[in-house]
Design a protein that fits this description.
alpha/beta; 14 helices; single chain; seven-stranded mixed β-sheet; 401 residues; globular; binds pyridoxal-5'-phosphate
Length: 401
């Protein structure tokens, strides 16, 4: 077999379907976010699709904590968490995360993906007869963990407690059950009815696992996420989050009971058999979490910018998909047009928005996913809305979401 022929055929197929992925070549410029230098066009651009939702990636407190830890501890962790890799910075970060979620304990992983994969595969594989009930729209990292566990999986309709109840009622009472879902879904920006899903899970004695990746730092009086905002954090068995989005650094974690965390610490291969995150990342992430537990400034400014962007786009007749979160999907509905709109934004307007195509979203729902931050100015918003309105006319795109 000619392996290169195989790779080429598969890549050609991606091109033919209009879903070949083209990456940016950006140089983030600390201090001028959301501006970055784009090496493809040789110019500065405004980034409108970053998951550094609050600009914590350049926050002085975060940078200072990282610089201090870099000078103090050096570059890497020096080992796995078990063998020489656990630094004081990891211990402090896990304490901070437990405090953030009001839980007994937390456990840090090298990324949010790894946290989901490792925690779900271990939880679901370890209990005989386990059935996993998974929201239809769950993220690839949760799906990977559930698959890897080998446990039976039932998919409930997106954000639908009645469908979850129907599935749970069909299962023998004695079987252990795990219900997993997200709080803010990253592509549509819709929000789970966490209390209702917990009501159902509790009725059937099921464990609950909530991915708060797109909500931690952003919602709740201390940035504990939607579960904190809704006053239901204590009802979840596991809350999972990332340190790489609103907290601006890198890493992932789960929070929950001391026994649950201790169990994963001793059983999850994705936690045990990999080098610990560098202490400087742990220190930076902790500084971000600690700051956002106290400060409302960033969250308030974020919500205000989001509301302004949504309002301005609607006034311009652009098809924003309505939701209650900070994610602003502008619908296009066709892969080729979506890529073209993104190219025009970049090359004619110095605005960077990555096109979102299948398989990230279903075919026919291709979109531009905008993520306003507190650092986008009124002028940035005006520039964005004008550019989009012009492109909608140029490409004769649809105006209803
Ligand atoms: C980004 C993402 C993750 C993975 O988090 P990383 O820290 O980026 O690995 C997990 N779940 C959801 C819903 C995500 O969007």
């Amino acid at each position: 077999m000619d392996f290169d022929d195989f790779f080429k055929a598969r890549i050609d197929a991606l091109h033919a379907e209009g879903r070949y992925r083209v990456f940016a070549d950006l140089e983030r410029r600390c201090g001028s976010f959301p501006r970055a230098y784009d090496h493809r066009i040789g110019a500065e651009v405004t980034v409108w699709c970053s998951n550094d939702y609050l600009g914590m990636g350049q926050h002085p407190l975060v940078l200072a904590a990282m610089a201090e830890e870099l000078r103090g501890s050096g570059a890497g962790a020096g080992g796995t968490r078990n063998i020489s890799g656990t630094s004081h910075a990891h211990v402090l970060l896990e304490r901070e995360l437990a405090a953030l979620h009001g839980s007994e304990a937390a456990l840090v992983f090298t990324s949010g993906f790894v946290a989901n994969e490792a925690a779900l595969s271990t939880l679901a594989a370890s209990m005989p007869g386990m059935v996993v009930l998974s929201d239809q729209m769950n993220h690839a990292s949760m799906i990977a963990g559930i698959r890897h566990s080998g446990a039976e999986k039932l998919i409930f309709r997106h954000n639908d407690p009645d469908d979850l109840a129907r599935l749970l009622a069909s299962l023998p009472a004695a079987r252990p059950k795990l219900v997993c879902f997200e709080s803010v879904y990253s592509m549509d920006g819709d929000i789970a009815p966490i209390a209702e899903l917990c009501d159902v899970a509790e009725r059937f004695g099921a464990m609950t696992y909530l991915d708060e990746v797109h909500a931690v730092g952003l919602y709740g009086p201390h940035g504990g996420g939607i579960a904190e905002r809704d006053g239901v954090a204590h009802r979840l068995t596991v809350i999972q989050g990332t340190l790489a989005k609103a907290f601006g650094v890198m890493g992932g974690y789960v929070a929950g009971s001391a026994l649950m965390c201790d169990f994963l610490r001793g059983h999850a291969p994705g936690f045990i058999f990999t080098s610990a995150m560098p202490p400087l990342l742990a220190a930076g992430a902790r500084a971000a979490v600690r700051h956002l537990r106290e400060s409302q400034t960033e969250r308030a400014a974020h919500q205000e910018r989001v509301a302004t962007v949504k309002r301005r786009l609607a006034e311009a007749g652009l098809p924003v998909k309505a939701n209650q979160s900070h994610i602003v999907p502008v619908m296009i509905g066709d892969a080729a047009h979506c890529r073209l709109a993104s190219d025009l934004l970049l090359r004619e307007h110095q605005i960077y928005v990555q096109p979102i195509n299948y398989p990230t979203v279903p075919r026919g729902t291709e979109r531009l996913r905008l993520t306003p931050t507190p650092l986008h100015s009124d002028a940035d918003i005006g520039h964005l809305v004008e550019a989009l309105a012009q492109i909608w006319q140029q490409l004769d795109l649809c105006k209803v979401a």
